[in-house]
Design brief:
alpha/beta, 2 domains, two-stranded parallel ribbon, four-stranded mixed beta sheet, 435 residues, 16 helices
Amino acid sequence: MPPSIETLKKRLEAINQLRVVRTLAAGSPTFQHVYQLLPLLLHYHHPQLPGYLTGEVPQGICLFQASLQQQWLLHHSVIPSHRIQLIRQGPPAIAALYSMGSTASLGQTTTSDLDLWICLQAALPFSARNALQQKCQLLSEWAQQHGVITSFFIIDEQRFRDQRPFASNPLVQQVLHDQLLLEEFYRTQVRLAGKRLIWPIIPLEQEPHYEHYLAWLYQQGIVDRAHWFDLGGLKRPVAFNYCMAARQQLENNLQAPYKAILKNLLLEIYAMEPSHSPWLALDFKQQLQQGRRNSFGLDPYCMVLDRITHYLTSRGDSHRLERVRRCFYRKVRDHTSHPITGSGWRQAVLRQLIDEWGWDITQIKRVDSNPDEQRSAPALYQDDLLQEIRENDHYLRHLTQLKYHNVPEAADGTISDGLLGQMARGCHLEISATR
């Protein structure tokens, strides 16, 4: 018997609470300060609050009530005067506020950026949307003063709908980008305030009939639309140039090459069996609905590693798997606390992974070496990085030419030496910056 809606709500809330705790634990005190105050600063609009600008500005988050901790932070660090009354005008304009990406995962570090989705259930007029974007810019500047790099994205509920993934037109690559973005959001999202996402509670077997099943739930009164936010189901794009998408991923992550490698390996997996291999977000949904919490509490980075491990193991490619493990370790390694001696959930997860991989202390020291301290270290870091980029690019080029020959933008030529050089420099910077 499938779990009830109430059971799924409780599971979803439990996972979200775990992710909030992990997000705050991984961040610096100033990060915690910014992260907890942002919902309040979007809920209210007042001359003494960060992000204020004159004129009509959309404000208010549905179902939001400030916690005691948030109220304390507000009145002790932002507006010390308790005489100020914050009053919100009109119905709330924002359905929900979410963070996504590495937040709350093993990949989050004290220097991680914060990607925030401001979710809107109804499209705003141009002037109102522009005012909200200006407020987000002011909030980004305020957060940067506290050492936190933030990026705000205003997302309408219809943003990912009404797309035609099989159309052969110049927008075809944008459709792939949007689907990959939505898929990543669904498996990495953390709700800071507002409505819950309804996608995780829609049964896995109903994914092909997502819109019809959701309409039925609303019509039957099984779920109340007023309490949920919906971005639509996950469509499977087929005729796409994954190779071009992977190269764009590299170009967009020059300062975070190990993250780009992991994302591009997922692209390779999706391209290998486009009609059968499910999105990784569907694994998240399946485990949630079955009441399981594999991958260390559905940690987004560990789920990626599990999928890659299964893929490379099934291909018998142990050499590449070992190389990817080294890249994964360097990406998630917390350089403020050694995985062998440090405490905390991150160190515990890394210790268990190291045991599963069968690494001894000599291997750990070699992979953990500082590229500024040992001559052999830079070559080790860069060789792993560049070999994986080349091999991934080779597979994706082959798959694009073999399966997607009707895509107008063909994957011609090997990856450029210039891009490889930029990724190598990014490798050195990413490792050195955390030491």
